[in-house]
Amino acid sequence: MMVRTFTERIYDYCLKFSGTVTLWVTTVGRDPHHGTAHRGHHLLGLAVDIEYDGSRPGQLADDYLSELALVRSKVGAADHVEPSSWPP
Question: The pTM is what?
C-alpha cells in the first residue's frame, strides 16, 4: 500500500468514526512502539495512532477497516492502525 492510499483511507476512517490522529510519522528515537510488533510502520508513514471524540468504536469500525485493507489494535487509550498485510 502506498502512503497516499493509506492517508486517504485514514482520513475517511477518522471522519466516519470521529477520530483524531495523535501519532503518524516518527523517528526511531521517538517511536513509542519501538521494539514491538509495530516496529517500523510509523517510520514509513504506514501506521497511525488514533484517539476518538467519544468511546472507542466497536465491530462496525473493524468491519470498515477490513474493507479498507487496514487493521487496528488497542494501544493504551488509542488505536494503532496499519495495513492488514505486511509488507503492504
Answer: 0.85
